[in-house]
């Protein structure tokens, strides 16, 4: 490994990767490092062992969950969220053969250590019965 670099970039999130790439294209000698055993920063995808280590400590996951390589869990959802009308517009233009669209009403996110439902559409519930139906 070389001893001298023009730039040292710490972290492998999106902005760090873009910065590292731009600097190296400009001819600078770049060392790109991350403290984690995976790349991608907060938007990474983890296998089962990495996921278990991150949220359960150093214990290994139970064997009944299967091989770690069978898992690839996104820490941040990576699908475009759009109003229903735009999704229908994509289908009408026959882009659905190249782009798979799904209609989702909810997603789940980890908030303050708890798994919580998060709305995926822009419409807010109009009545109490809508709120119950939408968030039940």
Write the layout of secondary structure elements.
Layout: E1 7-10, H1 14-25, E2 30-33, E3 45-46, H2 48-56, E4 73-74, H3 84-92, E5 106-111, E6 114-119, H4 128-135
Parallel strand pairs: 1-2
Antiparallel strand pairs: 3-4, 5-6
GO molecular function: GTPase activator activity; Rab GDP-dissociation inhibitor activity
GO cellular component, one term: cytoplasm
Organism: Dendrobium chrysotoxum
The gist of it:
This protein is α+β, with helices and mostly antiparallel strands and 136 residues long. The chain has helices spanning 14-25, 48-56, 84-92, 128-135; strands at 7-10, 30-33, 45-46, 73-74, 106-111, 114-119.
What descriptors fit this protein?
GDP_dissociation_inhibitor; alpha+beta; elongated; 18% strand; FAD/NAD-bd_sf; Guanosine nucleotide diphosphate dissociation inhibitor; GTPase activator activity; two-stranded antiparallel ribbon; 136 residues; two-stranded parallel ribbon; Rab GDP-dissociation inhibitor activity
- Please report the number of helical segments: 4
Q: Can you list the strand order of the major beta sheet?
A: 1-2
Helix-strand pattern: EHEEHEHEEH
List the uncertain runs.
Answer: 124-136
Distance between the termini: 56 Å
How many strands?
6
For the record, the count of structural domains works out to 3
Mean pLDDT: 73
Class from helix and strand fractions: alpha+beta
Strand content: 15-25%
Share of helix, binned: 25-40%
Shape: elongated
Oligomeric state of the chains present here: single chain
Backbone CA Rg: 21 Å
Largest sheet: 2 strands, parallel
């Amino acid at each position: 490994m070389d001893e001298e670099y023009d730039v040292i970039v710490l972290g492998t999130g999106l902005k760090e990767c873009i910065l590292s790439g731009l600097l190296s294209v400009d001819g600078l000698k770049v060392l790109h490092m991350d403290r984690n055993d995976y790349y991608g920063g907060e938007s990474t995808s983890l296998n089962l062992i990495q996921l278990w280590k991150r949220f359960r400590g150093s214990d290994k996951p139970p064997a009944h969950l299967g091989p770690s390589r069978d898992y690839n869990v996104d820490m941040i959802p990576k699908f475009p969220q759009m109003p229903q009308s735009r999704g229908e517009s994509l289908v009408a233009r026959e882009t659905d053969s190249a782009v798979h669209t799904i209609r989702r009403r909810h997603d789940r996110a980890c908030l303050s250590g708890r798994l919580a439902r998060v709305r995926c559409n822009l419409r807010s519930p109009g009545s109490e019965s809508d709120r119950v139906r939408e968030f039940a």
